[in-house]
Amino acid sequence: MYVVSYKERELKDVEMDGVQKVTVRWLIGKQTGARTYAMRLFEIAPGGIIPLHNHEEEHEIFVLNGKAKLLGNIEGIAKKDDIVYVPSNELHGYDNTEGKEVFKFICVIPLIEKENA
């Protein structure tokens, strides 16, 4: 067991085609001792976007701050205190291009072999 400030985890720019103004911190993952799940903290600045994409791991998301337009099969707005579930291989994305504040969320995923945190 351990307790650390999230600020001790490295802040990285998200590098994916079409991503703008997005950072991630791998809070818990293989490198920090997890064996089943990883927890990440994403921040999409005003004017930022994570475009439509998909991958094999499902996502469990809890929105901490702001709001963003959901892209993909579920349309609408995700806002503070909402939860979002993204099944495996489903197209999804988050659009904060018209936002006035940071869209900040926790994202939990199952650990997979390609996970590098």
Question: What does this protein structure show overall?
Answer:
- The chain has 117 residues and is mostly beta strands.
- The chain has two domains: 9-50, no CATH class; 52-93, no CATH class.
- It is 0% helix and 53% strand.
- Strands 1, 2, 3, 4, 5, 6, 7, 8 and 9 form a nine-stranded antiparallel sheet that branches.
- Strand 2 (20-28) and strand 3 form a beta hairpin.
List the helices and strands and how they pair.
Layout: E1 12-13, E2 20-28, E3 37-53, E4 59-65, E5 67-72, E6 76-79, E7 83-86, E8 92-96, E9 103-110
Antiparallel strand pairs: 1-2, 2-3, 3-8, 3-9, 4-7, 4-9, 5-6, 5-8
Count of alpha/pi helices:
0
How many strand units?
Answer: 9
- Helix and strand sequence: EEEEEEEEE
Gyration radius, in Å: 14 Å
Total domain count: 2
- Provide mean pLDDT, rounded: 94
Instruction: Work out the helicity level.
Output: under 10%
- Strand portion: over 45%
Short description:
The chain is mainly β. The protein has strands at residues 12-13, 20-28, 37-53, 59-65, 67-72, 76-79, 83-86, 92-96, 103-110.
Jot down its keywords.
single chain, 117 residues, mainly beta, nine-stranded antiparallel beta sheet, 0% helix
